[in-house]
Every structure is written in C-alpha cells, then in structure tokens.
Amino acid sequence: MYNVLIIDDEEPLREAIRIIGDWDRLGIEHIYEATNGRLGLELLGQHHIDVVMVDMKMPELNGIEFLRAIEKAYPHLLTIVISGYNDFEFTRQAIQSRVVDYLLKPINRQDLNQALRKAVDILESREQSKNKFISQNITLNMSLPKLKEKLYLSILDGSFKRQANTALLPLIGADQKGNRFGVIVLRLLNRDEIRRTRFHGDADLMDFAVTNVLAQTSDERLSCFSFSHPRREREVVSICTLAPGQEEHMALLLAQVTQKAVANLHGLFSMVVVAGLGKLCTDVLELASAYMDAKTLIHSTDVLKLEGEYILHTVPRQMGTLEEMSWTERLLSIQKDAQTGQANRAKVLLGDLLKQLASGPIFRLQDADRMMKEFHFLLREAAIELGASTSALNQDGALEDLEQVGESDLSADFTSFVHYGQRLNRMLELYIAGVQHAQAGNQPFDITDIKRHIDRYYFEDIKISFFAETYFLSREYLMKLFKQQFGYGIHEYVQKVRMDKAKELLGDSSLKIQEISDMLGYKDKNYFSKAFRNYYQVSPSEYRVSLQ
C-alpha cells in the first residue's frame, strides 16, 4: 500500500482529486493534504510519502521552490505536477526534477489516474527489487536457530533447569569452563516513530536492522547474540560471551561495544536509546540477575535530562533518598473534568502537574511509564462511561476504540520531558474530543441542512471542515452521508449548483463573463471558463452563442 500527498491551496481541487482518484484499485492507502509547499515539507518529515501531487502556484513556498527543495532531501520521491498555468518555466523545472507527469487544471479523471498509474508502476518495480534484496539478507542473518533465543529467554526469566537441559548448553558456550557472560539491555524510546518512518511500519524488518547493527559493532573478542524481547516491544537484549584470557578487560569491552552500538543506531536511524549493562557473570544462570540489574539502570534514567540522543548506564546511579510523588489524585481530577466537558480546566490541571514534575529533582523512566499507563486507563474508563469509547471518528461517524487511533496520536514514544508532556496532552485532547462528540450525539442532525447551506451560499469558499466542526462529526462521515442522500459528493454538489447557476446567468446577455465568474465565487475568469468547459464540454462563450 502506498501514501500520496496533495499540495494545493484550493480545497475544492484537493477534494476533487480525492473523489476522482481510483485509490483502492491503485493500492493507495493514505492521502495527506497540505495548503502550501512549506507545510508539504513538514508532512514529508512526519509521514512516509510515496507520491506527491504539487500545484506550481502557491503561497509561502511555490511548486518550483518545493521541487528544488526535495531534489536533495528526497531524491527517490515521485512527483506529479499540477498547474493552471501552462508556463514554460514551470514545465522546465518539472523536466529538471524528473516528475512523473504534468497535469493542467481543471483535472479530469482519466488524466489523473493515468498519472497515478505511472507512479504506482514505478513504485511496484522498486518494491520488487528491494524485497528480493531484503529477503536475501534476512535469510543470511537468520542462520542462528530460534532455539538459541528461547534458551536465553528461559535463563533470563529464571525458568531454565540445568539438569534437564544439559544437552543445550553447548549452543551458548555455557559448557566451557572459564567463559564469562555479560548482558546488554536496550530501551528504544522512539521505536514507533522509527518503525513507521524508516521501516514502512514493518516491526520485523526494524528488529532485524537493530540486531544487525549490534552484530556489526561487536568486538572480535566478544561473541554476542542479540534479539528483540518478544514480550517487551521496546526492549532489545544482547548476551555476550568472552572466552578465557581477557577477563580483566571484559567490562571495558562490553561498555565500548554498547557505546558504539547505541551511537550507530542513533546515527543510522535517529533512534533514541537508553542502554544498561548488567554485572559480569561466571555462570550463565547468573544472567537472570545481571539482566534485572541492567533493567534497573534503565528504569532509573532521569526523563528530565533526556535530550533526544542516547544514554549508556554502566554503574548504578547515586540518587539519594527520593520523596515518592503521588499523582493519582491529580489524574483523577483531570479525568473528572474531561468527563464533564470542562476541557480547559483539565488541560490546566495537566499543565500544572507537568510543571511540578519538571521542577522536581528527578523523574525516573519507570515512573513516566507508570504515569502514562494510569492516565491512559483513567481517561479510557471515563470515555467508556459516557459511551464515547475513545478519541477518533471512524468513517461511520462512530467513535473507535483507543487501539484504532493513529499510532502517531497515541504512541508511547517520548525522547525528552517536553515530548512526554506533549504525548499526555495529545492523549487528553483525543479523549476530550470523544466526550464532546458523545454529548453532541444527542442533538438532532439533518444532512439537508448542509444542502440548504450550499444552495444559499454557493458563491462562498465552502469547506467541509466548517460542517465537521459545526456538527461534531467527522469529515469522512459527512461526505459519505451526503453522497448517500443526494448522489453527489459535497464539493461535487457545490460545483453542480455553480454550473446550473452559470447557465442561468449566461442567459442574461447584459452580464459579462468576468462578472458571472465573480458572482459564482471563482477567483478568476480563466478558471471559471475551464471549469465550465470541463463540466459541459463547451466554453461559456460558446454556450452563450448557442442560446442566441
């Protein structure tokens, strides 16, 4: 499945593209929108985009500037240029930027889908080549048996029995006297973001990449086996074995390998990692205790000092005596306000709680995790009581369950205390939206209200977002309901009303075409003329002559 970004400052055009594109048949899953090139660049940084459809004449950052900007930053990005101006300068830049196609406004269905098909064909060709390469590499790097991973997991959770599994010890070098063992634990703080933006949402591919980096950065004197913990999705474990003769250097070697690995993960994938090293072991079964020591080091990480890079813990932190802070009462107050619709008060209370945490001596990672889980639970319970389930609206206008909300909205990622606060605030906003929708659900709604508004104000810049905010309903639900009721999309109906009115006004010979264009709400006469011709297959002038 592919993602498309539409960049144009005119909402009717963006909506028309959404309506006439054969998205399902082309295998296009998500369609993002931006009103100018600057916002388009921001979306490229936030989402994985395969194809960009860009208008050439826009405010702030126009199409030419946008194409030049992405040539270096996104050299493999496919682009389709859209323009209402058949200008040589635009055409020349499109050729230089190797765009897939160049479309003139107003866009028709056939030209749009032909251009998209070209782009999808290119993407599918690339995907076939890439998948072949990845499959070959995964096959080569998965030569170690899954049994070895299960063996280590049983040791770490304390369920391994030496007498019953003596035959398996040679697999991990535990049968050789004098071997030393160490454990490295990594916590991937921005795992969801990296999986989504760098690995197309493929968790297995990302895990392979992380363990591969660990393998490549291992010291030749250390034998390390790394794997993603199957029950803790943000955790990666690496078990290291050192043969006799280098015992006095093992702690240093282990620290050096870990330092290099987390630096490489940050440099290659922008991963923010917290790493902990357990104590060195002379017996493989001692790894269970060393593993817990490493996890304790990670849990002690001070979120207030996170700066979006990486942290390595090799010895316990000297934190002194900390006063245990209870935030449960505060969270309950926020829950109550969110449940009763007092959105501003709930946001203020959350802001005060975050300020108090920020002014404290330390805010440990384990406390941050616990607080986020408790906040999640309380808000979810409040929303369910109201029948509001959770935050986002699905295509039928109903509130979906929390697990169905977009990953970027409710991800547990955070790489700094500021980022952590943003996550909690976003969670609160989503639940408040759910409560508001549940409360508005008792108010009567008639889809003909939207039709009446269009019939009366067809000459204005009509936006679906206006109706969505007015009726507390999702954009997708309104569009679907309107089309079911009247047989037209909302913007299609606006165009129909305008074109019907245009015919009526063209019958008055005293009105100039420019005046009619203004009366119908078009920005210029040329765009009106093209829209009229696309709708009726004749120009306004030709239609007027036919009437005479």
From TrEMBL:
Q: What is its main location?
A: cytoplasm
Q: Which Pfam families would you find in this protein's record?
A: HTH_18, Response_reg
SMART domains for the chain: HTH_ARAC (SM00342), REC (SM00448)
Query: Where is this protein found?
Result: Cytoplasm
Q: Which UniProt keywords are given for this protein, alphabetically ordered?
A: Cytoplasm, DNA-binding, Phosphoprotein, Transcription, Transcription regulation, Two-component regulatory system
> In this chain, where does the modification 4-aspartylphosphate occur?
55
One example GO MF annotation: DNA binding
Database matches in SUPFAM superfamilies: CheY-like, Homeodomain-like
- The chain positions of domain Response regulatory read 3-120
Superkingdom as given in the UniProt entry: Bacteria
HTH araC/xylS-type domain ranges (all copies): 448-546
What's this protein's name? DNA-binding response regulator
User: Which source organism?
Assistant: Paenibacillus polymyxa
